[in-house]
Each structure stands twice: as structure tokens, then as C-alpha cells.
Amino acid sequence: MEEVREALRQELKIERARGEVLRRAADFAKTAAGGHLEAVAKSQGLSIQQTGEVREGDALPGINASQPVVSRMLGLSLGDVSDPLPIPAGQVVVQVVGTAPPATRSFQESRPQVLKDLDQERARKSVADAVQAAGRTGGLKAVARALKVEMKSQADLTEGSPLQGLPADPAIEKLIGTLAPGSVGDPIPTAAGIVVLGVTSRADHLDDLPTQKDSIADGLLKQKQDRLYRALVKKLKQIGDVQVNRQIVDSLDRA
To answer: Which of 95, 160, 180, 190 might form a disulfide with 37, Cβ 3.0–4.6 angstroms?
Structure first.
């Protein structure tokens, strides 16, 4: 029971941190709406980066797997500020500050993208052949051996959560939700590379609710106590001089 309680406590901390990041990113985007991104960023001590001219299929300079962000940026009007957009390292907010007239790329300009697309298609076909030959009978391990790549696993993936090291991708999320346990899905091209997924098992957490309801109740109670405590301290600070003993507070948080 103590192990379950500690796991829930750690999960609650992670969810709080993730929620705080999303909240701050949303507040920033809301404040910067109307074309004030640079001014708001400077007022909050945040750095900004000029992307230069970008086109469909490009990534943000220095940010891997950010092609979806560029795609969203290309759909904005001049001066528009985006909502927070996910990247592997967190969230990013972008603004369009200039546009270039439509122009046909010369062969020399298009050549790198054409070669990249050809390489990706060859890789996708090779992976698809490996899935067809090995994956249908030997599972994901057989596919990894055939392609001579490392297979990674992730346990207890909750619905809507991205895989570690990969940006959020609707195709991946849909496949995870529909793939039968024990089977291997078709390869999915992403900004981070080609991904092949296999689902080992699927659990309905409602089935575990009777055995975990005590630990869940404890976690919810601690959240409620934490909110009440902080609200009380805030109110006392407003009406008098209050000193907080951090050592005692930290010991209570660890209890």
C-alpha cells in the first residue's frame, strides 16, 4: 500500500508541474495576444528567437521535431500570436512578424527537401517490410532485431499522454487507443522519425478502483489540505505579520 501511495504522490507532483507549465504558457499567450509577444516576453524575463524564413516541412531553428509548430505558424496571419504549442522540451508560443511572397523554389533550393523525402519514403518502406515479415508473428522485438534498432518500452501510459521523447502526435495517440494488445501497428512517419508501436496490454483503471480507492482518497485529501493551508496563510498574511516555518511545512509535505 505504501508503494502505491508513493507512486500516486509522485504522479500528483508530476501532474501539478505539468499543469503549472500549461497554465503559465496559456497566460503568456493570452497576454501576448494582439501582437505583443516580444514586449511581454521581455517583461517576464523570457528569451525570444527569430526563426527567419520558414516553409512547410521546416523545423524551428535549434528545436528538433518542431515541424508541427512551423505548420501551425504558416496558418497564422501577420501579427497573430499562437496558442501554446507542444514541443519535446515543453511549450512554445510563436508570432508571425513578416511574410514572404509566394515563389517557386529553384531545383537547387528544393533538392535537399526532395532527397529528404525520398530517404524517408525508403526508410518507411523498409520498416513496413520488416513489420510485415517479422512483426506479425514475432512482435515488436522481432521488428527491432530485423531493423537492428533499440526497442523502448513505456509502462502505465495514460490516455492523451505523449510517448517519452516524442512530440504529441494525433496519429500515434489514435493508434495507441485502437491497437489490439499483442499486435504491431503500421509505421507512422513523425517529425522525430518513423515510429512503430506495439501495445502489450490495456487496462481499464475503473477495474482497479475498489483496491485503490483508499490511496486515491488519501491523495485527494492531501490536495485539499494543501489548498486550504495555502489559502489560510495567504489570508493571514493579508491581516498580519506571519512567518512560515519551512522545515515543518516540508516535513508535512513528505508525510
So the answer is: 95
